[in-house]
């Protein structure tokens, strides 16, 4: 069965370190998204991609970057981790760029920045 | 300012009760979705509504999209403990391809 996976599931890091969260999907979807989920804020879009070599900034992109070198993967990099980036991160994918298309979410990565 | 306001934020009820969750905005959406999220997992899509006034039913769950496409509601009949979870509404503004999520409604159904 097709799926979307995230790794690691839990990560503790220190302020100032570079961190990369992995997202891998076997749906062969063109569209991939990164969100963060925080109490009191819900899910907020960080970056998204509509295909290989395409990346776009979302609502809360400062301090984050992504790159899309193949269809299956969209890694999220925190260039210099800050305590404000402690959160649960979700990756999602969808088949089309139609806004009403189903987004399939991964299980999430809980990141703690000390 | 939150684009999509969900209410209530938290709801604790007994098995068998009915409930309604609301998702409101001052903006017009081209589509609106409802997701359910269980602890330690990602959200899972329940339904998508795209037409103003549209009503969709999924077993004991009834979803409605407002006539003006600015609001939506989720009604659960005879809630069961398995309905427990975080319910999220998400909408796409006219002319935009990405989703904006509400903060969610945490539902706890006790036996």
How would you characterize the overall build of this protein?
The complex is a heterodimer of chains A (114) and B (111). With 114 residues, chain A is mainly beta. Helices cover 0% and strands 51% of the residues of chain A. Chain A contains no helices and eleven strands. Chain A has strands at residues 4-7, 10-13, 19-25, 31-38, 42-51, 54-57, 64-66, 76-78, 87-94, 104-105, 109-113. In chain A, strands 2, 4, 5, 6, 9, 10 and 11 form a seven-stranded mixed β-sheet that branches. In chain A, strands 1-3-8-7 form a four-stranded antiparallel β-sheet, with no helix packed on it. In chain A, β4 and β5 (42-51) form a beta hairpin. Chain A starts with a strand and ends with a strand. The model of chain A has no long low-confidence stretch (mean pLDDT 95). The model of chain B has no long low-confidence stretch (mean pLDDT 94). By secondary structure, chain B is an all-beta fold. Helices cover 0% and strands 55% of the residues of chain B. Chain B is built from no helices and eleven strands. Chain B has strands at 5-7, 10-14, 19-24, 29-37, 44-49, 55-58, 61-65, 71-76, 85-93, 100-101, 105-110. In chain B, strands 2, 4, 5, 9, 10 and 11 form a six-stranded mixed β-sheet that branches. The A-B interface holds A 33, 35, 40-45, 48, 58, 90, 92, 97-100, 102-108 and B 2, 30-31, 33, 40-45, 48, 50, 88, 90, 92, 96-104.
């Amino acid at each position: 069965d097709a799926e979307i996976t995230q790794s690691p599931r839990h990560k503790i890091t220190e302020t100032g370190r570079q961190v990369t969260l992995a997202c891998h999907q076997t749906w062969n979807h063109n569209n991939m998204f990164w969100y963060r989920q925080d109490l009191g804020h819900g899910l907020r879009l960080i970056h998204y991609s509509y295909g290989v070599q395409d990346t776009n900034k979302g609502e809360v992109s400062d301090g984050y970057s992504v790159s899309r070198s193949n269809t299956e993967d969209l890694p999220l990099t925190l260039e210099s981790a800050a305590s404000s980036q402690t959160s649960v991160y979700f990756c999602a994918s969808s088949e089309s760029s139609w806004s009403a298309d189903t987004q399939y979410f991964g299980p999430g990565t809980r990141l703690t920045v000390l | 300012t939150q684009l999509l306001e969900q209410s209530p934020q938290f709801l604790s009820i007994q098995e068998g009760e009915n409930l309604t969750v609301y998702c409101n905005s001052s903006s017009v959406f081209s589509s609106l979705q409802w997701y359910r999220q269980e602890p330690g997992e990602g959200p899972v899509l329940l339904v998508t509504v795209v037409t103003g006034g549209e009503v969709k039913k999924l077993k004991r769950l009834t979803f409605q999209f407002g006539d003006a496409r600015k609001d939506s509601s989720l009604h659960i009949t005879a809630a069961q403990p398995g309905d427990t979870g975080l319910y999220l509404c998400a909408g796409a503004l006219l002319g935009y391809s990405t989703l904006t999520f509400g903060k969610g409604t945490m539902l706890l159904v006790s036996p």
